[in-house]
Amino acid sequence: MKVAAIQMVSEISVDRNLAQAHRLLDQAAAAGAELAVLPEYFCFMGRSDRDKLLLAETPGLGTVQDFLSDTARELGLWIVGGTLPMATDDPEHAANASMVYDPRGKVAARYDKIHLFRYDNGRERYDEAAALVAGEQPTAFTLKDRSGQDWRVGLSVCYDLRFPELYRQLAADILVVPSAFTYTTGQAHWEVLLRARAIENQAFVIASAQGGLHENGRHTWGQTLVVDPWGAILGQHAVGAGLVVCELERERLQSVRQQLPALQHRRL
């Protein structure tokens, strides 16, 4: 199955972001991808964290959800819609939700980011909990590819990458990690964490990133990757908007798991 990991440098304008996302998704479909993964905050990078509250959508109603549904149906793609802000019972906090749409444009899954990023090195400061509420439920879904094979796809977002226990619970064939890693933390930890999650779970990893200098002044690391179950990088896009298209082979997944049956050897 061919998959596409999409990298963006999202702006403040939702319309421009959606137009850019559509161009990249169209390229993914033209390359034969069946699954495309957009980055975290693909639809909006505001001037402040609280700006996203103004755009929070309710389930089944909103510009971004309509875009994802319509584009999945138009292009015949499974789309993991990065993340978008979804309304909660608390008007001061949104959920950072990853919405999945099948090729008919129907919602296949929703995952709300569980682990909220906080970082302060004296020069950069981030605290997602100021505007977001944490999710509670690990989420995976089954994707049937065009050949009729089933793939279990586990959902995660960005900072979740640092919590391996989440990925153990997902028990997936493919792990997706839409992200907006900062330049500082990405340079230090992005690739090594992604390869570790692939190796220890013997799963493919699709990590779609924000990558560049944004209109709001934020600098994201980029380096969108697809990793195989042995930890080998199958494709990578460094900086700026673009995409990586790779073939995920079921035989490779089975071979790694048979030759080194670490998942069967777990004791804890």
From TrEMBL:
Q: Which UniProt keywords apply?
A: Acyltransferase, Hydrolase, Transferase
In this protein, which residues make up the domain named CN hydrolase?
1-250
PROSITE patterns, sorted: CN_HYDROLASE (PS50263)
* CDD domains named in the record: nit
Q: Which Pfam families match?
A: CN_hydrolase (PF00795)
Key word Cell division present: no
Checking Gene3D superfamilies in the record gives: Carbon-nitrogen hydrolase
Q: Name one GO molecular function term.
A: acyltransferase activity
Q: Which InterPro entries does this chain map to?
A: C-N_Hydrolase, C-N_Hydrolase_sf, Nit1/2_C-N_Hydrolase
Task: Please name the SUPFAM superfamilies in this protein's record.
Answer: Carbon-nitrogen hydrolase
The source's superkingdom equals Bacteria
- Keyword Cytoplasm, does the record have it? no
For this protein, the record's PANTHER family field holds: DEAMINATED GLUTATHIONE AMIDASE, NITRILASE-RELATED
Q: What is this protein called?
A: Acyltransferase
Q: Which organism does this record belong to?
A: Malikia granosa
